[in-house]
Design a protein that fits this description.
mainly alpha, 2 domains, 7 helices
């Protein structure tokens, strides 16, 4: 990657490594922050424009824990992908892994692990 594309990628990764949502959600619900303070926190922390984050802050106002739950699920899927890649090596197939995760539906983390385990067993033959 070169130029502005690589800068955009780095900025995106950096903003997601410690998202403002993780801090604004407890600020809103445990510390009594106003909506305006949470928006300002995003703007200051991520360099976003207020219009870019207002709907996100509104979601965190009405859905406590959503950002944390999303990130935990994301991290678990990434861990399970690494597990599948490690155990299967060349037999790993991204599409088949994705099907195992997505077609399993909205499931608890232990069920996700079992679904991935079944994918691994089937891929081994």
């Amino acid at each position: 990657m070169t130029g502005s594309r690589s800068v955009g990628w780095v900025t995106c990764r950096a903003s997601r490594s410690a998202p403002a949502a993780w801090w604004s959600t407890p600020g809103l619900h445990a510390k009594g922050w106003s909506r305006a303070k949470a928006v300002d926190f995003f703007v200051t922390r991520n360099g976003s424009k207020p219009a870019e984050v207002e709907s996100e802050v509104d979601r965190y106002c009405s859905w406590p824990g959503q950002a944390t739950g999303y990130k935990l699920g994301h991290s678990r899927i990434v861990d399970q992908r690494a597990r599948a890649q490690s155990e299967l090596g060349e037999a790993y197939d991204f599409k088949a892994f994705n099907d195992a995760v997505v077609l399993g539906g909205n499931v608890p983390m232990d069920v996700l692990e079992k679904n991935v385990g079944r994918y691994i067993a089937a891929a081994r033959g």
